[in-house]
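Hi there,

I know you've been waiting on this one. I reran it after we fixed the sequence typo, so this is the corrected version. Both the input and the resulting structure follow.
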Amino acid sequence: MNGDKPLLGLISSNMADTWLHVGLAAVMLIIGFGPGGRDTSTA
């Protein structure tokens, strides 16, 4: 992880922002690939 250094020398970043994005990515992956509650089969 990049830590507290600017990302590509352009965008300010810090560890709190990095962990926020890691958490958001994990939640979105779980929602996207998790078990669905609907039956999508066609009759």
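Quick highlight: The helical segments are 15-33.

Best,
R. S.
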